[in-house]
Structures are given as C-alpha cells and as structure tokens.
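Anyone else keep sequences and structure tokens together like this?

Example one:
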Amino acid sequence: MNQLLLDAATKKGRPIPGQSLTTDPKNPAPYEKPPKFTSIHDASEHIFQRLMERDVYIPLMQVLSDGVPIMDITQTLLFKGFTEGKWTPDLMMLLVEPVTYMILALAERAEIDPVIYRGEDEDEAEEQELFGKEVNAEKLKQLKARLTSGKIPRGIITPEREQELEELPTITEVQSLLSSQKSEEDNMEGEESGSLLAPTEEVMQ
C-alpha cells in the first residue's frame, strides 16, 4: 500500500509531499534563489543573444532541419533556464510565445520549414503537454496559426537583432560547416593513427 501511495505521489515527476523541506537551506538549488531575470524583455534579450551564438545556432539549425519541433526546443531551453535560476515558473510560461517566435525567425533565416509542435498533424489530439501540464490543443493551434502567418509581432525582434539575423548562415551553409568540421576531425584521427603505426612499420622493415 505504501508503495502504491509513493507511485501515485511521484507520477509524472511530481515531487513527494514535503520533499522541499529536506533540502539544505544553506545550499539551495539555483531555482530556489532569486531569479536572474524578472522581466520578459531582459530574459528575451538574453535568450536571443545566446541562440545566435555559433555554438548554439549551428546545432539548433541542424535539429530543426531534422524535424525536431520548435515547441520541444522551446520547452527544453526554458526549463533548463529555470533549473539554472534564470527565471521563475511564471516568467518561464510567459516566455514560451516570444521564444517560439525567435526560433521561428532563426529557422526562416536558415530557410528551414520547421515543425511547430509534436503531433500537429493529428486532428484527434485534443490535449498537448507544456512543461508537464496539459494545454488545450486549440490554444496551440492558435499559436501555430500566428506562427505560420509569417508575421512576427513587433518588439519580439529588434531592428538591431534583425540586422544580426541577416549575417547568420543558412542551413546549406551550416551543413557545409558541419561537413568541413567532420572532415577536419577525420583527418586528425587519421594523422594520429599514422603516428601510432609508424614505429611498427619501421620495425617490420
């Protein structure tokens, strides 16, 4: 019986009642401290700047071209920021739409036709999950309609950011960069293999 209660309490990742009281108050988790960002504007600027950095932008474009839904990426990015203490759960929810638009703008710049959310073509799906909570599919359809309209709301991306967008590589250029990087890595591995085999060849001669 106790195990059944435990299973019920922990279903879908919910914390065990009283679990927060067991943490060390002298060493709180990042999300238990005051958040780094308290406004949508500041948090959005931080996120967009990070998304345009090479080490994030290139793999992001790759996963978008592979069909990973924008909403999945948005949830992962925002939840990670929450666990790092960057924003509260309330601000995290408010950031969903602007961050989705940001990723859509990046996808458009890279000439990628992205998937908006998982199961978007399944008409029978009435509910979708957002951060582990069920969200009415109609709300997501409305968001999708706004996203696919091609009109990004004013203020989501500033003129300065729009100029920076123009300097980002397209998916073709991204794939070329990844291909070049892989070739360099293969060449380095080949050189290392050759150096290890060299003494053996000398002995054989």
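And example two:
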Amino acid sequence: MRCLALIIACGAACASTAPSVRLTEEWPTKVGDYDDVTEQWSRSTNMHRDYQEVLRLTGIFKSPAWREAHAIKEAADRKLAGESRDALLAQAKAEAAGPYEVELLVSTWDRSENDLDRGKRSVWRVVLVDDSGKEIAPLEIVRDKRPPWTVRAEFPSLEDFTIPYIVRFPRDTPLLGEGVKQLRLRMSSERGGVELRWSATAS
C-alpha cells in the first residue's frame, strides 16, 4: 500500500510541472494552434517496479479547447469551407457536450497487460477523480483502431508498440466549471498506480 502511494505521488508530482489550463465548459473565443493545444492538454507519466519500466502513459483530455482546435485543423486539412466547415464545428460542439473523453496512449513492458479494452477483466483500473476526490468510473474503454499514422497525425506522442484507447466518462458529475481547481486521471493495478493531473489556470 505504501508503495502504491509513493508511485501515485511520483506520478502526480511529474504531472504538476505541466502547464495549467482552463477547466471550464466554455467554447474558446480564440482558436489555438492545434499542436500547441494538444500539448497543453497532454499529460504523461510512467511507472517503474523492481528497476523496470512497467507502464508508460500519456493522456489527452478532449476539452472544448482541444475539440475546437481539432475541428479547425480537420476543416483545413479537408479544405472545407462554408456550410461544410460550419457543420464540422457544430459536430465538435455536440461531441464536447457528450461524455467526457480522454485519449490514452499506453505502453506496457508485458504486452499482455496492455488490455484496457477488456473492461472489468483488465488488469488495470482507470478512473477520473474530480475536485473533491470522488472517483468516476468510465462508461467504456475502446481501442482506437484507426491506422497508426492517422492516430499519430492527431497525437504525435504515439510511439511504436503503444496502443491508443478512447475512454469515455459520464457527465453525471460535473468535472469542469467555475471554481474547479484540478482534474485527475488515475490508473492502477496490482503493481501500483499513476496519476495524470490537469490543474486550472488561476483566475
């Protein structure tokens, strides 16, 4: 138990050096560069056990800012304009109003442990942790089965032998909003656990 606490503390400490972000539901008034926005909303950590790397984890929280930047990039890549571009942006807003979504890029030393899409049979437990410390279990975890080059175009941190997953969480508990100071994603197993943390920009 002490080992688990130390590993989680280490993961949280690593994540705390990441840039702060706006943890609100507001649609941005200024469009950010996609690569910059993706980097701002990405958090990474790893876990070691017995001098061996057990897990390498990157999570990208698909915030309103990320969804807008992604939609603008996709519209430019597809040469969309007018109504087609507007429809793509409207779709991005609709998706932002749906379940909270995180893209997880997972590498494990033992490939059999890279099994998040097995649900409750997975060796890992993944939860979001709200500002009060409440854990929110995912609605689903599915493997992102798009070709690697497609995923890498969206998430440049995707490495060889890394498996991407899409994790969706219910909106029953508001995780974004005025006064929210932080949002965490916790991933743990019998080996220990790590946390990714998004801290709010000071108002």
